[in-house]
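agent> fetching stored inputs for the calcium ion docking request
agent> found them:
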Amino acid sequence: MTMGDACGPLSTPDLQHGLVDCRGAPTLLLAVSTLSYHIMLFSFILVLLLQGAVSVGEKIFVSTGQHTFSDGRDLCARAGGALASSRNAAENRALAEIVKKNSKFAFLGINDIQTEGKFVHLNGAPVGYTNWKQGEPNNLNNEDCVVLLENQLWNDFPCEHKSLIICEL
Ligand SMILES: [Ca+2]
Ligand SMILES: [Ca+2]
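agent> prediction call returned; pasting tokens
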């Protein structure tokens, strides 16, 4: 490397012989890569917010389109999250906001596939907080999944039908 060369990976002999006119490059490269990391992180959060992500407590809810219960569950898991569940009224309200915005009811990460009438979360834990619509769950034609309606109420619903999928991250 000689004077005037473009800055590239520097070897020790280059530095020792003072042949390179870009000794500040390593520091500069580090600064640039830190800056691009921050820009990337900022863009990621911006994209989430533009997509209508809602944050409640430590959770971020992001909607992904309409899928069956099992496809939605797998999709969220692949994204490093889980199909969203309302664990309390605040989370239920936040999820209902997304439902309202999309005008599509959404699957919750709750089902009674294993034992009819016994609703559990994806990890098998029994459901504590519930917000059933009057007359639900009615297991009409064997409904084993649960959708959240825009009025914040729940209805048991066929798992194989497509509904809005909201992942919690
Ligand atoms: Ca059922
Ligand atoms: Ca029902």
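agent> quick read of the result: Residues 25-50 form the longest helix (26 residues).
agent> awaiting further instructions
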